[in-house]
Amino acid sequence: MYALELEKIKKAFDGHEVLASIDLKVEQGDFVVIVGPSGCGKSTLLRIIAGLEEHTEGHLRIHGELMDTVPPSKRGIGMVFQSYALYPHLSVADNMSLALKREGLPKAEIAQRIVTAAGMLALEPLLQRRPSQLSGGQRQRVAIGRAIVRQPKLFLFDEPLSNLDAELRVNTRLEIAQLHRTLGGTMIYVTHDQTEAMTLADKIVVMNGGHVQQVGHPRELYNDPVNLFVAGFIGSPKMNFIGGAAARAEGSATLGIRPEHLVLTDNAPRWRGVVRHLEYLGSDSFLFINSDADVELCVRVVGSAGPAIGDTVGLSPLPGKLLCFDANGTRLRGDKAADIKPLPRTVVVG
Ligand code: ADP
Ligand code: MG
Prior knowledge:
It is a single chain. By secondary structure, the chain is an alpha+beta fold. Helix content is 25%, strand content 33%.
């Protein structure tokens, strides 16, 4: 039995299709991150799972039970939004206990759950404060606490870190990961941030334009993307794309190579170019090279080793690391990709 099962879920607003036909199976205890650009339908999908939005077609099951017409409060979900959505006139403790009181849980049980959740989230000293007396990070922890005390079958997070500053985002990300280990619950987490997706997920669902592009472990999406969209979306700095190659059977093709899979070499390099820009990050540096591949190529070098701006360099891909995509963006593999040749070049940079 799956914790969550989506079967051909479709959604249209006024006849305009927003979700195409979403199939997804989530195992109990998994941390699933749905990632994709703004407007691709992530929040709509999460709201459908929560019952806050009706789907146009398809079926939705939570722990095997059909949920298509079950109201949100009966679905056993705990949801955390980007905007914390706390009641300003209630204390932290009252914000966290409100839903439990409505459910008619005994007072002692409510108190016990609040203490436990507050302990996990380091909220004990803040329980009597109002939301306005808290920082953004603390408010978001309260919103998470409010979901935890309900002991939901499914946690749903919609971009919960987007309103936090960079440092707090990293800290809260770690806390959410630890919380998942502690609680062992099933979590569905929506973000447009591929770094968040890579660091949190057991399984990433990449969406674009209302379609699921690929589902897999972060490593799988990074190393083995099924199409150009996934290859370009996952990874930072982005994969380099070089157009104008020819594939044996497929006509024109695009080559893809990640910055760390390009090496500087003078020995029969595949491409040559001039270093135009350099980003030194301490542990490594990224060189941006105006190349005779007709695109700027980004190369990672370890530490600060390597050439300076203005230097001419040669570049080759590491063996087996060059990916190939057909004119529709679909990844070509095996035989089809084996025969990729760059088209004859006309530009010489030096
Ligand atoms: P995401 O969360 O990935 O940024 P959303 O799910 O919020 O995307 O939105 C997906 C698409 O659906 C967008 O084009 C958005 O404008 C549209 N949309 C969302 N909610 C509504 C609504 N209530 N009425 C009409 N269109 C909507
Ligand atoms: Mg959204």
